[in-house]
């Protein structure tokens, strides 16, 4: 409900695309998660908090690589404009 309300208020600012939950190969989010998992493959976090920090850093590094993100969408057959 919270997400739907947000998009209702900002529908002129965003284009909402529904991604199939049954086909992870068509969901760019799955590509992002896989990239971060590979990026943190050799991490040895000593606590849950440290694991969260390692994962957050991985997503922050990914966010600074728009060409990689565009490839994830292209892989799913989606374009980013």
Give structural notes.
There is one protein chain. With 81 residues, the chain is mainly α. Helices cover 57% and strands 0% of the residues. It is built from four helices and no strands. α2 (28-39) packs across α3 and α2 (28-39) crosses α4. The longest helix has 16 residues, at 48-63. The chain is globular, with a radius of gyration of 15 Å. The protein starts with a helix and ends in a 6-residue tail after the last helix. The relative contact order is 0.14.
Features:
about 80 residues; mainly alpha; globular
SSE order: HHHH
Q: Biggest β-sheet, characterized?
A: none
In what range is the share of β-strand residues?
under 5%
Radius of gyration: 15 Å
Q: Which structural class fits the helix and strand makeup?
A: mainly alpha
Number of DSSP-assigned strands: 0
Identify the overall geometry: globular
What number is the mean pLDDT?
88
Low-confidence blocks of residues: none
What fraction, in percent, of the residue positions are helical? 55-70%
**DSSP helix count?**
4
Quote the distance from N terminus to C terminus: 27 Å
Please outline the helices and strands.
Blueprint: H1 2-9, H2 28-39, H3 48-63, H4 66-75
Helix pairs in contact: 2-3, 2-4
Quick synopsis:
The chain has 81 residues and is mostly helical.
């Amino acid at each position: 409900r919270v997400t739907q309300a947000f998009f209702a208020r900002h529908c002129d600012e965003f284009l909402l695309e529904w991604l199939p939950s049954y086909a992870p190969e068509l969901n760019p989010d799955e590509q992002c998660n896989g990239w971060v998992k590979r990026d943190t493959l050799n991490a040895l976090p000593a606590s849950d908090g440290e694991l969260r920090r390692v994962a957050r850093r991985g997503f922050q590094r990914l966010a600074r690589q728009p060409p990689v993100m565009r490839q994830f969408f292209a892989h799913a057959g989606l374009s980013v404009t």
